[in-house]
Structure to design on (216 residues):
């Protein structure tokens, strides 16, 4: 497929962990030098809202489509036209997520370092393994810790990583997104984190994107 680079899916089974924030920031960063499509497959439409707010401010924005149902064929069709496709599949185990995993190159699953959140990864682990068994053998699955404490003394992140390292289908991302207001303030304003005024949040997000896309 001429010009095709990759399809990245951001999703999981738990809401409120920063999936849309990660998806729109990946899309914004890669769109600076690659033809990029942002797909909102979440019924809540948060990525579409972010895109609308950007357009209202006359800010540059990649193309956005809203999709639902089986995404396998639509994503592969769009892969003929774009170098990077970023899919926000929402916070539920859905037909959108499962079908997108059959077509994508990289799956990013954000999770908070709490017991109830970490427990959802068992099912996501099975979903990823099923996608590989159904034919997407090269699928790369990364789990990202979000909302982690900014206080380095707290052990939440260390304890969570010990569990993540035991997952058979995922490889943990070294970079975590700390609990910073910059993430939701910029997202709710139609901005990328790099367009805000928090250098620490910008650094975290850029390191995360680099690590995920380069599969470091």
């Amino acid at each position: 497929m001429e010009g095709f680079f990759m399809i990245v899916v951001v999703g999981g089974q738990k809401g409120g962990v920063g999936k849309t924030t990660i998806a729109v920031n990946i899309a914004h960063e890669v769109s600076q030098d690659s033809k990029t499509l942002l797909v909102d497959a979440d019924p809540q439409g948060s990525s579409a809202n972010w895109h609308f707010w950007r357009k209202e401010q006359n800010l540059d924005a990649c193309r956005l489509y809203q999709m639902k149902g089986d995404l396998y064929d639509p994503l592969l069709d769009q892969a003929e036209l774009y170098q990077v496709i970023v899919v926000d599949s929402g916070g539920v185990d859905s037909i959108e997520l499962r079908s997108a995993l059959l077509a994508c190159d990289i799956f990013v699953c954000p999770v908070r370092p709490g017991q109830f959140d970490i427990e959802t990864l068992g099912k996501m682990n099975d979903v990823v393994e099923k996608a590989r068994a159904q034919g997407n053998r090269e699928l790369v699955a990364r789990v990202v810790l979000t909302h982690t404490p900014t206080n380095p003394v707290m052990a939440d992140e260390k304890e969570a990583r010990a569990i993540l390292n035991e997952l058979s289908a995922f490889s943990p991302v070294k970079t975590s997104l700390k609990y910073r207001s910059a993430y939701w303030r910029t997202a709710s304003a139609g901005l990328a984190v790099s367009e805000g005024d928090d250098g620490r949040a910008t650094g975290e997000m850029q390191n995360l994107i680099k690590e995920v896309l380069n599969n470091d």
User: Anything to note?
Assistant: The chain has one domain: 6-214. Residues 160 and 181 are 22 Å apart (CA to CA).
